[in-house]
Write a structure and sequence with these properties.
- The complex is a heterodimer of chains A (395) and B (358).
- Chain A has 11 helices and 10 strands.
- Chain A has helices spanning 3-19, 46-58, 76-88, 98-110, 113-124, 238-253, 264-272, 282-310, 319-341, 355-367, 377-388, and strands at residues 130-133, 149-152, 156-167, 174-180, 190-196, 202-207, 216-227, 231-232, 274-275, 278-279.
- In chain A, strand 2 and strand 3 (156-167) form a beta hairpin.
- The longest helix of chain A is centred in the C-terminal third of the chain and has 29 residues, at 282-310.
- Chain B has 3 domains: 7-117, Orthogonal Bundle (Butyryl-Coa Dehydrogenase, subunit A, domain 1), CATH 1.10.540; 122-208, Butyryl-CoA Dehydrogenase, subunit A, domain 2 (Beta Barrel); 211-355, Butyryl-CoA Dehydrogenase, subunit A, domain 3.
- Chain B is 54% helix and 14% strand.
- Chain B has helices at residues 7-23, 26-34, 42-50, 69-81, 88-102, 105-117, 210-245, 257-286, 291-317, 328-340, 345-355, and strands spanning 122-125, 140-142, 145-154, 161-165, 170-174, 180-185, 193-202, 204-205, 247-248, 251-252.
- In chain B, strand 2 (140-142) and strand 3 form a beta hairpin.
- The longest helix of chain B has 36 residues, at 210-245.
- Classes of the chains: A alpha+beta (395), B alpha+beta (358).
- At the A-B interface, helix 7, strand 10, helix 8, helix 9 and helix 11 of A face helix 7, strand 10, helix 8, helix 9 and helix 11 of B.
């Protein structure tokens, strides 16, 4: 390691020591502990607010983004140092954000200067919470079949249509949205626009899932007027941006919804019982062992891809592979947890079950969406087959 | 930890790849088989050793290159790609590791330089039943004499030096010693092996107990997993090419989604396994304290992956995959032999669970 990097590590360690509040160094106890920010966000814990403010001011919520847009301006190596130092003290992520994970990277690549200056710093500081307007009732896996209409009205765009599966749209301040600007062609008639959710004519309605939670919404646009400056990239050039954004989404999405507080091995030990150091149910034991191996293989593969990316290899096309593998892994984990917990994982509410038991049940149900959201497993296998393996439909 | 080869390792891998592609393609194994050589190809072994490949992990003081396990793993992966029939794994990895970890100074001095040069072929003899169970050995050692029986010793029919494991001890036996009887096995993978009985055979006790037996086996397992990743990769690539050229219903069959998804899943499985094997080889070079976990992870996953890849190779080739003239059968047979050797997926799942404390 170079001298500069060692100096950066010392500096970073000292800063984190002085600035990361004590309660932000404890493990998260559930999804409720995730800080999403935004105009109307209510912090449960004042220290979470302080932590976000401090990290946001340093740009370390987006460590590698350029400093001129509020980012940390760190190199990949410096970011690795920061992440490892945060891990060392058990620091929680200061911010969970679709702006950080999905929108920011494509704005850096495709947006004009004015758009970058306007939106990126607010993402970094967690001031604006974004949602994703992609899927429609008639455009799921066939996303490019979307119909939400965007018309040029001279001094503004006029938007009419409906989006669905808009994550947390009811909490979001702004929406990045795919709209149809040309009905005579398919992929080439899509544009990428940014919509303020407080604009007249925007309405959201939460969707209740099988897990009982409502992380998604239907979003309706009725005669919504947005400024001409809110289109990112060129008119009818949105599909390329959409696909790039999906790659970022797929790298981030695969583990949503599971009860990650409890390890499946501990759960099995508790409920199944141990004999001579081994789980009494030998069949379940073998399947948990296989799962633990896959989990390790997945983690090692992510690490390998990061190393190859650093060495200059193009690994962006691998996002679909990781999405499929990650979703399967998480679903298998949830199934094994439910099986290991027996009837303790069949509760829904009330005093008869512990909060952890119920989190296991509901996490298992929520995980069924992992292979659907962000591109179904089937669509992602198509991507791997076509783009990575070169298997074409017609030849 | 690193997954990236350094310049020396990369150069060695390229050398091995070029040599195996040119001098030991699958047709060479096929020829050996058709001539009923049962894995004997001393000319090939001489050439392999001549390139220095028999001494990759052996330190320079014993005549080797001292390049480590990542380097040897890269060579073994390339040898797995073309199903090279040679005692490279048994001698240059398993046998050499046994001497390095359990040999006395005198034993190392005597044998390692000759293993590195390829003059001596070494192997390890482990199993005494149909399944891998190193801790259940019934081997007896008294007054410098060894009595017992080993089954399916890899390259046991061509080895000069046999390192025999008991449940908690190791012994060094010359293959031509009195009291050593070898029954050559003609095996499905055309590599051959031997059942070996020891009847008061003169043997030298080596250093170490059960933990050293385990450590040697873990090196053998990780190296074999590297070879298996090579075989699985080649099986996958041959199959993938076939999907792009075979036409039915007026189009290439690789255009059918049912086959595209099978190929994509196999590819994913292969990539995940490759990461495990690379990490395991790296753990050996770092002398990490989690080698046992990595060994079981790598061997179990490599077993499952090569199992799947070889089965898919036959099925996705259709009828031609069932014919002897096609290579699919050779990959399938080699896959099962390597899966069983030094413990298959179920053995290593069981061991992994124990290592993780459940």
């Amino acid at each position: 390691m170079t001298k500069d990097l060692e100096a950066f590590r010392t500096e970073t360690r000292a800063w984190l020591e002085a600035n990361c509040p004590a309660s932000m160094r404890t493990p998260m106890t559930g999804e409720d502990d995730a800080v999403w920010g935004g105009r109307n966000y209510e912090f449960k814990n004042p220290e979470a607010k302080l932590w976000l403010e401090r990290m946001g001011a340093k740009g370390w919520t987006a460590p590698t983004w350029p400093a001129e847009y509020g980012g940390g301006g760190l190199s990949a190596d410096e970011n690795r140092v920061l992440q490892s130092e945060m891990k060392k003290i058990g620091a929680r992520p200061p911010l969970f954000s679709f702006g950080l994970w999905m929108l920011g990277p494509v704005l850096l690549e495709y947006a004009n200067e004015e758009q970058k200056k306007e939106h990126l710093p607010k993402i970094v500081r967690g001031e604006i919470r974004w949602c994703q307007g992609y899927s429609e009732p008639g455009a799921g896996s066939d996303l490019a079949g979307l119909q939400t209409k965007c018309e040029d009205k001279g001094d503004h765009w006029l938007i009419n249509g409906q989006k669905v599966w808009t994550s947390y749209a009811n909490h979001a301040d702004w929406c990045f949205c795919l709209v149809r600007t040309d009905t005579s062609v398919k992929h080439e008639g899509i544009s990428f626009v940014l919509i303020d959710m407080t604009t007249k004519g925007v309405e959201t309605r939460p969707i209740k899932l099988i897990s009982g939670s409502s992380p998604f919404c239907e979003t309706f646009f009725t005669d919504v007027k947005i400024p001409k400056g809110n289109m990112v990239g060129r008119l009818n050039g949105g599909w390329e941006i959409a696909k790039r954004l999906l790659q970022y989404e797929r790298t981030n999405i695969s583990g949503f919804g599971s009860n990650t507080r409890v390890d499946v091995v501990d759960l099995a030990k508790k409920h199944v019982g141990i004999e001579d150091g081994a789980l009494e149910d030998r069949d379940l034991r073998a399947r948990i062992a296989e799962h633990k191996m896959t989990e390790r293989a997945y983690a090692l593969s992510v690490q390998r891809a990061q190393e190859e990316a650093k060495a200059g290899g193009n690994v962006s096309h691998m996002a679909s592979m990781f999405k499929v593998a990650g979703a399967t892994l998480n679903q298998d984990r949830c199934e094994l947890m439910v099986e290991a917990a027996g009837n303790r994982a069949l509760g829904w509410s009330g005093e008869g079950f512990s909060p952890d038991d119920i989190a296991t049940t509901r996490g298992w149900l929520r995980s069924k969406g992992n292979s659907i959201e962000g591109g179904t497993t089937e669509i992602n296998l198509n991507v791997v087959a076509k783009r990575v393996l070169g298997l074409r439909d017609t030849q | 930890m690193t997954f990236t080869l350094n310049d020396d390792q990369r150069m060695l891998k390229d050398t091995a790849r070029d040599f195996f592609r040119e001098q030991a393609p699958v047709t060479r194994l096929r020829k050996q088989r058709d001539e009923k050589k049962n894995g004997r190809d001393p000319d090939l072994w001489r050439e392999i050793a001549g390139l220095g490949l028999a001494g990759v992990i052996i330190p320079e003081e014993y005549g080797g290159a001292g390049l480590g396990f990542v380097a040897l793993g890269a060579v073994l992966e390339e040898s797995g790609r073309t199903l090279v029939a040679s005692p490279l794994h048994s001698s240059a990895l398993a046998g050499a590791s046994a001497l390095l970890l359990a040999g006395t100074d005198a034993q190392k001095q005597e044998w390692l330089p000759r293993i590195a040069s390829g003059e001596v072929v070494a192997t390890i003899a482990i199993d005494e039943g149909a399944h891998h169970a190193p801790s259940k050995s019934k081997l007896k050692f008294e007054g410098g004499k060894l009595t017992g029986a080993k089954q399916y010793v890899a390259d046991g029919h061509i080895a000069d030096l046999i390192i025999v494991t008991g449940a908690d001890a190791l012994y060094l036996v010359k293959a031509d010693a009195a009291g050593v009887t070898r029954r050559e096995l003609v095996t499905a993978d055309s590599r051959g092996a031997a059942d070996i009985t020891f009847e008061n055979a003169p043997a030298e006790k080596m250093n170490g107990g059960a933990d050293v037996v385990d450590a040697i086996l873990d090196r053998a397992r990780i190296g074999l997993a590297a070879e298996m990743v090579g075989s699985a990769s080649e099986a996958f690539e041959i199959t993938s090419e076939y999907l792009k050229t075979r036409r039915q219903f007026g189009q290439v069959i690789g255009g059918f989604q049912a086959l595209q998804h099978r190929a994509a899943k196999l590819f994913t499985d292969l990539e995940l396994t490759r990461s495990c094997v690379q990490a395991a080889l790296d753990a050996l070079d770092r002398n990490a304290n989690t080698i046992a976990e990595y060994a079981s992870l790598a061997k179990a996953r490599a077993s499952e992956t090569v199992h799947l890849a070889s089965n898919e190779m036959v099925q996705l080739h259709g009828g031609i995959g069932m014919t002897d003239v096609h290579d699919a059968g050779l990959y399938l047979k080699r896959a099962r032999a390597t899966e069983a050797l030094y413990g298959g997926a179920s053995f290593h799942r069981d061991r992994y669970a124990s290592l993780l404390g459940f």
